[in-house]
Amino acid sequence: MDTKKILVTGGAGFIGSHLVDALLSRGNEVVVYDNLSSGKKEFLDHCKDDIDLQVRDLVTDKELVDVLRDIDHVYHVAANPDVRVGADDTWVSVEQNIIATYNLLEAMRKAKPSDPASISFTSTSTVYGNASVFPTPEDYGPLMPISQYGASKLASEAIMSAFADNFGIKATVCRFANVVGSRSTHGILFDFYHKLKNDPSKLEILGDGLQRKSYIHVSDCVNGVIHATETQGSNFEYFNVGTADYAVINQIPGIVTEAMGLKDVEFHYTGGHKGAGWKGDVKFMSLAVDKILATGWKYELNSTQTLEKAVREIISDLEA
Ligand SMILES: NC(=O)c1ccc[n+]([C@@H]2O[C@H](COP(=O)([O-])OP(=O)(O)OC[C@H]3O[C@@H](n4cnc5c(N)ncnc54)[C@H](O)[C@@H]3O)[C@@H](O)[C@H]2O)c1
Q1: Are 220 and 64 in contact (CB under 8 A)?
Q2: Ligand 1 pocket, 34 CB below 6 A?
Q3: CA 213, CA 256: separation in Å to the nearest integer?
Q4: Ligand 1 nearest atom to the CA of residue 39, by list position
Q5: Mutation probe of ligand 1 site: the residue of 21, 32, 36, 37 with most atoms within 8 A of C-beta
Q6: Residue 78 in contact with ligand 1 by CB distance below 6 A
Q7: Tens digit of pLDDT for each residue in 77-122?
Q8: 236-241 and 212-213 beta bridge pairing
Q9: Dist. CA 18 → ligand 1 center (Å)
């Protein structure tokens, strides 16, 4: 096992806290860097004595270079992950995703100019926009995101590519499908659960219900990112991290109501934006995952199994 001192930005969030668990279990020394805007200290309570938690902000931190001086590898997970917010606020993803990523890369290059830390970046399927090839491979193009969020992640990938070439920062870009599981604080299962708790007789579903999307369980996702990072040979690489199948949105209300023990719930469809849930939502997302599978990684659960397991985990978190 190759143990390292690793910094996880966004390590107190949903995906980040699972990544912290996986890295600790592999014997790494872990520094969690998080401004706790959506992350929660409670997600790290069980391992608080084993980590160094730095409550700091990537946008404003004047001492970021010092934090990075003795770091071997960075998992850059911090972001504003809300795709919907961009329809009203076009600045948040520029600041929290593009500027935060630039600040991090610039600090990495200054912290150890002759031997910079390497980085893994949690990007997203939304960089593909409304793709015309399914499943969509990593080399699909042109990339035309339709959300401010997707655009900000694509811009961050591009800046990272230039830093990799110019300053020798090895980078692994992982484009995630929809990630679900315990400690979720957003997403369709979380939304449906809260709507049904509010009114168990009816459920509003954004869009026409015919959207098709690939889902991955957070434990499969985290293992995928670590595996891609550890097996990557070249200096800069992209990997889709998802399942080879997808679920239709119409399946999900039944999965959630069954897990909550509800019957005779009326489902209402908003029609949304051109059938999608909201401005910036894609109607069909299915990722080609042959590249990461070829590295020897395997996921345990397909999209439907993922949703069935994750909703039970979310209910158990929220009703604990
Ligand atoms: N959840 C998904 O389905 C999904 C899909 C694709 C990609 N991603 C990406 O995965 C990553 C994690 O997403 P998540 O779902 O766990 O979201 P999350 O909101 O739970 O995690 C983001 C974390 O980053 C922290 N953070 C935000 N801005 C920060 C800043 N300026 N400085 C320091 N910390 C900051 C938050 O407090 C939070 O802990 C994000 O980069 C997101 O874009 C998520």
Answers
A1: no
A2: yes
A3: 16
A4: 39
A5: 37
A6: yes
A7: 999 999 999 889 999 999 999 999 999 999 999 999 999 999 999 9
A8: unpaired
A9: 12
Q: 234 and 314 share a domain?
A: no
Residue 286's region, left for phi above 0, alpha for psi from -120 to 50, else beta, is beta
Token digits of residue 309: 């397991």
Examine the pLDDT at 2 and tell me if it is beyond 80. Answer: no
Mutate to test the pocket of ligand 1, among 31, 38, 238, 303 (most ligand atoms within 8 A of CB): 38
Instruction: Check if 211 has its Cβ closer than 6 Å to any atom of ligand 1.
Output: no
**Same domain flag for 221 and 141:** yes
Domain final residue pick, 226, 241, 256: 241
Residue 135 shares a structural domain with residue 276: no
Q: What's the gap in Å between 264 CA and the centre of ligand 1?
A: 35
Pocket test for ligand 1, best of 8, 33, 34 (most atoms within 8 A of CB): 34
**CATH code of the domain containing 261:** 3.90.25.10
Same domain? 235 vs 171: yes
Task: Write the CB contacts of 301 (distance below 8 Å, at least 6 apart in sequence).
Answer: 216, 217, 220, 243, 309
| Model pLDDT for residues 170-202, shown as the tens digit of each residue | 999 999 999 999 999 999 999 999 999 999 999
Count: domains in the chain? 2
Ligand 1 touching residue 74 (CB < 6 A): no
The residue range of the domain holding 283 is: 181-214+245-318
pLDDT of residue 148: 96
Q: 3-state DSSP call for residue 285? A: strand
Residue 21: CATH number of its domain: 3.40.50.720
Its pTM stands at 0.98
Q: Is the CB of residue 250 below 6 angstroms from any atom belonging to ligand 1? A: no
Please give the distance of CA 195 from its chain centroid, rounded to a whole number. 23
Average pLDDT of the residues in 261-283: 93
